[in-house]
Amino acid sequence: MAEARTAAGARRGPGRPPGRRGDASATREGILEAARAEFAARGYAGASVRAIARGAGVDPALVHHYFGPKDRVFIAAMDLPLEPEELIGRVFAAGVEHAGERLAEAFVTLWEHPDTGTRLLAILRTAVSDGGNPAFREFVGAELIARLAEGIGGEDGALRANLCVSQLLGVALTRYVLRLEPIASTSAAHVADRLAPILQRHLTG
Amino acid sequence: MAEARTAAGARRGPGRPPGRRGDASATREGILEAARAEFAARGYAGASVRAIARGAGVDPALVHHYFGPKDRVFIAAMDLPLEPEELIGRVFAAGVEHAGERLAEAFVTLWEHPDTGTRLLAILRTAVSDGGNPAFREFVGAELIARLAEGIGGEDGALRANLCVSQLLGVALTRYVLRLEPIASTSAAHVADRLAPILQRHLTG
């Protein structure tokens, strides 16, 4: 910690007063900046917590202390409003035969909530205009599609998971971005009801 | 025609030489410009061929002569690579029970072709960054979703059609824009095979 504070303090320069709270906040922000640079340069798969720590001038243990493993660092750096590991865990918690229903519910809950919905909308818009940011693509592949595929198993699990994600992103696009009718003014509960069997079919049908 | 040529000629100004071919081309371009302005100002539903003709300084019959009814004027003005009326006609040509399969085939054919695929990609990107251009939204609603809903019938036909369009746009997004794996490197034929039963389920399941 002492080493990290010193490094962050040195980056801040002499003009800003030191202080425990300010140091911790500056160190966290420094790590997130270094993480964004590392993910942009090397993608998600190629990035390492060690290199992010080096970029921020801190010990790797401090990165782990503040954020956890690489997926959590990515989530914090990109300000993602969901944690795939936790989300997919919930989706399969009641058994694979309820995964479609659970996924549909989780999807509308995330998109309907003003805070998470606004952030997801911004992420989707940026992803489309970027034409597929490689780090984001790898993160979705490794953390969302792969975990979903693992939950359903089978040789074509990854393609099933991917088609399932396609259906969800398509509803996000038509309901929240393009606001096509009638889906834009259908109730969230009804959208979830209609999606559940389709997602189940993608996963296990 | 004589009146139209005069109007187009007057707009062109004295610096450019007149000529039959140049006149027709300038008149067409003038109509398309007026159409884009009219659709932007009044949306798709509120726009009229009469107002577009007025904006271009030509007779409404000339607009019809060059482009056809309003949907065709919109298609030409927006440079859309598909005609919903013709497309949906083909989708239902072998009966509603084959509509999923036909739609899946039409979808991959349009997106895989270099010319139409590139134009669709540009339209999707623009639609997302525009956050749902009202004229485009109304056109998709009136010409694509409504025709698809008419083909399948039933009280919830429009929502079924909309979910079907969501699935297709979601695959367009994940395969062609975000290039997520494994769907980005799955063969087009296999994508169509996987989509067909899902689309059929959306439409009639």
Distance between the termini of chain A: 52 Å
How many domains of chain A, as an integer?
2
State the low-pLDDT regions of chain A, or none: 1-19
- Could you give a short account of the major beta sheet of chain A? none
Average pLDDT reading of chain A: 89
Q: In one word, what is the shape of chain A? A: globular
Measured by residues with Cβ under 8 Å of the partner chain's Cβ, the largest interface is: A-B, 40 and 40 residues
* CATH-assigned fold name of the largest domain in chain A: Tetracycline Repressor, domain 2
CATH superfamily of the largest domain in chain A: Tetracycline Repressor, domain 2
Instruction: Kindly name the structural category of chain A.
Output: mainly alpha
Radius of gyration of chain A: 20 Å
Kindly state the number of beta strands of chain A.
Answer: 0
Multimer state: homodimer
Q: Can you describe this structure?
A:
2 copies of one chain form a homodimer. Chain A has 11 helices and no strands. By secondary structure, chain A is mostly helical. Chain A folds into 2 domains: about 1-75, Arc Repressor Mutant, subunit A; about 85-205, Orthogonal Bundle (Tetracycline Repressor, domain 2), CATH 1.10.357. The model of chain A is unreliable at about 1-20 (pLDDT under 50).
